[in-house]
Amino acid sequence: MSSKQRIALFIDGANLYATTKTLGFDIDYKRLLKEFQEKGRLVRAFYYTAMVEDQEYSSIRPLIDWLDYNGYRVVTKPTKEFVDSSGRRKVKGNMDIELAIDALELAPYIDEMVLFSGDGDFRSLVEAMQRRGVRVSVVSTISTQPPMIADELRRQADEFIEIMQLEPRIGRDPAERAQRMQHGGFEDNPRTGRGLERRYGIRQAPLQRDDASDEG
């Protein structure tokens, strides 16, 4: 039996995007996987995002497709439109429940949960995972004003990881974007990785999996 820590990543896509956009860098998702594979046995890497169904083309679709073919388990659901009390049209797409259920179901099969989010609503989930013996690290930033992470979430976590400290190891080289734009972009093919492999990282083998946690 392996003595490596069993790790699972839970990425709140919208929250992580807002954080890195504010900080001015892009995630290289291949490098992100490699970073945590080197820390232990990476059982799962979940990515959660809501998507607008009736759009002819979604700007995040290439990323979602690439992640789905390259070691991530992508969880999506359609956004919901509503009109607020002021008569303004708004779009809602909260993935908190889906993330929480997956985390609690996986708790018996992991030693550490790494949560990429600063949303204070996850404080109760973090506490619930800790009661089940799972160590919880939260990745966000306090480098902005105001910080992108809720104080109650940061206090509850076993470890807070400042994402700016990870940026040299998981960030994408800004020169790649400039080169892509200079040459008119690359063809995006999630099955072959052509184009997307330059944008998000090269295709790689699927993650190691804990057979017990594969049920369902």
Automatic annotation (TrEMBL):
Pfam families reported for this sequence: NYN (PF01936)
Q: Which residues form a coiled coil?
A: none
- Provide ranges: composition bias, Basic and acidic residues: 171-200
- Write down the CDD domains for this protein, in alphabetical order: PIN_LabA
Region Disordered, annotated ranges:
171-216
Which InterPro entries does this one have? LabA, NYN
Record GO terms (molecular function): RNA nuclease activity
Name used for this protein in its record: Uncharacterized LabA/DUF88 family protein
